[in-house]
Design goal:
Blueprint (H helix, E strand, L loop, with lengths): L2 H10 L3 H8 L4 H11 L7 E5 L5 H10 L4 E6 L2 H14 L5 E5 L12 E7 L8 H11 E12 L5 H21 L3 H4 L2 H7 L3 H10 L4 E7 L4 E7 L2
């Protein structure tokens, strides 16, 4: 991760959840539940949430793995991790979550450590998608699944046009009112650079995942990559 991207996420940390609501038309909670379900995390598992942000997926994973399970929540933004920790103290019954400030391109974990993993809105922002997936493959146990949720450019031209109109006319002005116009101007170019679902499947297979499926949701404006290590 570059220092520039880290700076962006540190700056947007106080309004990160609000902006996710606006970006996703309020639907990101549903998609996060789907993502955790697709990770196949079960009671007692040791699980990993990469690019954890303010902790939404981490908390869902913690509920799924239960008291005998463990969640390691990783983010490179110290400010977002602080918000996640505060949310954990005030909104949840002390789940078994360890908060880790680290770069997903160089994870501070042993090989074959995790039973399941999730990532929400992070893969699009890493500087090296292939390396990120390689690191994920390294730390997962054989048979483990990971589910990766992110925004996408839809293939349908009308939907692409709607998405761009929505970003330009609603999301960026809201961000501008919060003094974060420059920080949220990166969204459109990041969507343009992001590999399609089929391309993500190909990259996952190249780095060693035996099974990879991409599920488009929200008319292709969102997607979940589900990958399995054998």
């Amino acid at each position: 991760m570059t220092d520039n991207i880290r700076t962006i996420f540190n700056r947007i940390a106080p309004v990160y959840d609000q902006l996710n609501d606006w970006l996703s038309l309020g639907q990101h909670h549903v998609w996060k539940e789907m993502t955790v379900k697709w990770s196949a995390a079960k009671p007692g598992d040791t699980s990993l949430d990469l690019c954890c942000g303010s902790g939404d997926l981490s908390f869902r994973l913690a509920r799924r793995v239960g008291r005998n399970g463990q969640v390691y929540a990783v983010d490179f933004s110290s400010q977002l991790l602080e918000i996640a920790k505060k949310r954990c103290q005030t909104q949840y019954l002390q789940p078994n979550i360890t908060w880790v400030e680290a770069d997903v391109l160089s994870l501070p974990f042993e090989d074959n450590q995790f039973d399941a993993a999730t990532m929400g809105y992070g893969l699009r922002n890493v500087t090296d998608i292939t390396r990120s997936l390689k690191e994920l493959h390294r730390v997962l146990k054989a048979g483990a699944k990971a589910a990766i949720l992110d925004f996408h450019r839809p293939s349908n031209p009308q939907l692409r046009a709607f998405q761009q109109w929505y970003l330009d006319n609603l999301v960026v002005p809201i961000a501008n009112n919060l003094g974060l116009k420059e920080e949220y101007a990166y969204i459109s170019p990041s969507l343009d650079r992001f590999p399609t679902g089929n391309e993500q499947v190909e990259i996952a297979r190249q780095v060693g995942f035996a099974a990879a499926t991409h599920y488009p949701i929200a008319n292709g404006m969102m997607g979940v990559l589900v990958i399995t290590k054998f």
